[in-house]
Specification:
alpha+beta, 12% helix
């Protein structure tokens, strides 16, 4: 069975750059006999035809930076000092108390 040439409005599976998934797309632009642009049927985002190729996963830069910061911090051998005990509040002795009603 030979493949027929794509036409405007045909459904193709392609990687959506907004959804970041392989989804149904409609052909909206042709360049000669090749598909040029497609529109996602889920989010209606129009983009160039990617032939269903999923991009390489992004490297987690935040994790790498966090590991670099942790490597620079010297390790603490002893426990940190305990916080001081809270002070008790005493009424001010020079001011008379207001009468209660």
């Amino acid at each position: 069975m030979s493949e027929r040439t794509p036409r405007l409005g045909d459904l193709v599976d392609d990687y959506c750059t907004r959804c970041r998934l392989v989804m149904n797309h409609g052909v909206v632009g042709l360049v000669g006999a090749e598909i040029g642009r497609v529109r996602c049927h889920t989010c209606l985002h129009e983009h160039g035809f990617r032939h269903g190729r999923v991009p390489k996963p992004r490297k987690d830069k935040v994790k790498d930076l966090f590991d670099q910061v942790l490597a620079r911090i010297p390790s603490i051998q002893e426990a940190p000092p305990a916080p001081p005990a809270p002070r008790r509040r005493t009424p001010h002795l020079g001011m008379p108390r207001k009468p209660r009603r």
